[in-house]
Every structure is written in structure tokens, then in C-alpha cells.
Structure prediction request, 274 residues.
Amino acid sequence: ARVGDWPMYVMPPGTIGGGFGDLTAARKSQDLARLTGLFASQAQNGHWQWYAEQHGKSAAPKRHDWIEFVRGAAPHVAAIEPTQLPTTRRFTGIGQVVMNTSLLSAQDNVEVIFKSSALGSQSHGYESQNSFLLYAFGERLLIRTGKRDQYGSDHHRNWMWSTRSTNSITLDGRIGQFPRSQRAIGSIESFATSAQCDWLEGEAAAAYGGKLETFRRGILFVKPHAVIVFDRIRSKKPATFDFWLHAQESFAIEGQHAELRVRKAACSIDWLTP
Prediction:
């Protein structure tokens, strides 16, 4: 009944990048348009119909059997532009929050996607808990890394299953969360949204196998131009903490400051404390 909200929030029209999960990096919003149009017809949801029509799609490909006859009997769904919907959505069941400045077009959107999930990191959703992504103006700025070349390959097993491949935290340069495991759980502890700013907080200590007492990551999104990441970490033994960020292009780093540009989008990064 709510499945069409997922493409609408994660991939506003024109978005490249399907958020977390396997083989999503090159996914385009238009890839989901026909299916969203089908859901719109079945659920009589005008917002999902609008999403499909933005890509020139109104429904799934025509079939030549009784299923298509049943579909054809459904009343027409009028498209409704999602201007009255909040631009941020918490998907409670899967432990993700998607924060946008616009649902109308990727070219005008800044998007932060956050994951801290009770489903763990098994199967195709193996990103580490308390990790996040940053998209802006149609470009993927801060990303998850790797591509499954072959199941169980050295790259797949030792990089993509590793916390190091995501925008999260490791201890002492090597200790991360349980790889590909139901034990690597997180949770979203607080969430609030408004037209001006969004706030969330995730807890992911359980994913580190007893090494941490707490790993609280808060993200304040001051729309549209500022994202503040606030980490509070307490370990059971003295440790260093490594703050991982990844991008398609090289960072220009000077001290506690970094600059990143990916084609027509850019971000300026400051570590406010060492």
C-alpha cells in the first residue's frame, strides 16, 4: 500500500543512484517509473502516477492475458504533484531515513540517505549501520563503494562486506561491524522533520560485537546547504576512531578541511573536532 513512496523519495525524477543495496549505484529513476505507474493504478495513488508520468510512463508494459483485462477495468488515476507532501520520510520497517529538499527534480534537490537497521547487513543490504549518502543536483557526492564483480570474490568479501567501504566508523583502522550478518544491527532512536531542517539519530554499537558501549550518530540537515554529522562514541577500551568518507572523485584535503567536486555538484567538508 505504500511501496510507491520508496522510489518517489529515494529517487526524485532525474536521480542517478538508488541509495543503499546491491548494484544500485547506476540505477536511474526512470528504471522504476513503469512499475511505480502500475502501483499507482492498483492503489489509486495520484502522487505515484505523477512520478510515472514525469518519466513518460503511465503503467507497466501491456500484457495480453486476463491480468491486463483486470488492470484495464481500474479507474483512471489523476496525477498529483507532490508539492504538499513533506520532502523527508522515515521508512521505519527497514531502518532508513531519506531527507530531501525537493521531490520534484534531482536537479534542484539535495538528498541525505541514512541507514541504521534492525535487519542487519546480510544479503543485498550489507551497508554498515549509521552510514549515510549525500546526493546533490543530480550527482552522487558521498557514496557507498564497490561493485559486486563475483559473489565471494576478494573485492566482494573483503571490501564490500567491510565497514571501510561505507561512510561510517571503524576502530583502530580495521575493526568494523559484523560483516554480512543479522547480528550487525542498528536502530533509529529519534527523528523529526520540518520545512527548514531535519534531525535523526541512530545507534549502532551492537553491530561492533561488544567493542563499543555506544555509537550514536546524529545528523542535522539544515535545508538546503548544511549537513552536520554529530558522532558520540564510547569504547570499552582506548581506541582511535576512523571517520570514513568516499566519493567518485579525489578529495582535496588540507588539515581538518576537504573539498569535493563531482561534475556540477560540490561540497565543502570541515571536521569541527579532531
Observations:
- The helical segments are 5-10, 33-43, 46-54, 66-72, 154-160.
- DSSP finds five helices and 14 strands in the chain.
- The mean pLDDT is 93.
